[in-house]
Amino acid sequence: xxxxxxxxxxLYTFLIFPVLIFTIELTSLFFTKVNYINSRQTKYDAITxxxxxxxxxxxxxxxxxxxxxNRHGLIKTPYQSDGKNDTFGILLLGNSVAMGEGLYGYGNNxxxxxxxxxxxxxEDPSIDLINGAYSGFNSWQEYSEMIRYLNVEPFFDxxxxxxxxxxxxxxxxxxxxxxxxxxxxxxxxxxYSFANxxxxxxxxxxxxxxxxxxTNGNIRSxxxxxxxxxxxxxxxxxxxxxxxxxxxxxxKYNKKIELVINDNDISASDNLKDIVxxxxxxxxxxxxxxxxxxxxxxxxxxxxxxNILNPKIxxxxxxxxxxxxxxxxxxxxxxxVVGIKHLVGFPRFPLRIFESEIKIIENDYRxxxxxxxxxxxxxxxLDYSGEAKSHxxxxxxxxxxxxxxQMSVKLSNQLLKIRNK
Length: 421
Hints:
The chain is an alpha/beta fold. It has helices spanning 3-31, 96-99, 112-123, 139-152, 171-183, 202-212, 219-233, 235-248, 272-280, 284-307, 355-373, 401-419; strands at residues 42-45, 49-52, 88-94, 127-131, 162-169, 314-319, 380-383. The strands form two sheets. The chain has a five-stranded parallel sheet with strand order 4-3-5-6-7, sandwiched between helices. Strands 1-2 form a two-stranded antiparallel ribbon. A hairpin with a 3-residue loop joins strand 1 (42-45) and strand 2. The relative contact order is 0.12.
């Protein structure tokens, strides 16, 4: 091929390729009925670290792949007040359990928050519940979200003044504790800026630091941001990614995949000290020190949340049940806990621990936490850790629709009693 022909080929490639891409993207508008762009994404948030990306998620009631939002970017509940007079406002805080992960459907009606609001309004139509929960939120992020709400609420009629705040969770702070003890001996140094993962996750901070470093001349960061922006806007790329995710990557939930241990020399222990030393390589005194440190961190957040409110506003902490807390002794077996790498900092080697052993550790952590919460007069405590069955969960913490119904009925009855005291 002559030099002129090579030059022409390169020129035509640069001219034709963008036109071809544009034509394909334009054609996709007519042949793809569902908009996959940003359908289930999480976006960066300067206050809480991350939150729901609600673009294209406001009114698609028939989509069963994600939860829809209200105009404020909060996960929508069926009822929305149009004024503040005679409205009893409730703010629900928590992680993906309270948010309603996995319970997708028409208008979010299946979520725990929506079912809780429905049950409350059957008895008291003046109640308006706002779902301020989001996936991965710990007690620090709940506090931050509550402060955001208190700053925003006075200027919007569809956001009720608060009469009650509910923190529904517990498991997210527990996973922070597990991450800390699992990585404590493996981390070369604890950096001040990351706050030991007690606030926003270190991985989130590192990623945002990387992306923002493009302004300081980091070419790789700038190129990564450019590629991400193309992927975010391309319908074709999002369509292929959605097909790949549905058919080849089972990452929608971290399901409890049964993994039976066949090694006769390894079996589950019922002794907390033995579990800690074998699974985490840590002596028991250090474990207790880190446990108390983690509990104190959560207590500071809960104190800050409850003490900042008007004394007339009820602050209720609900320790929600989990698969682990719901395991009965009859259901104990030698099964590994699997699918939790994202919860313990994506370690190179997975945490080797049995389901029944995690139950014992969570029980120890929960008892320590509850003991401290009972000392705080501004917090009303509801311990629901033993109020479910292990088959009520489709993974280690998220409710089935049946479980969401059962727990919402129970909680609504207790909330009404608290209100009417």
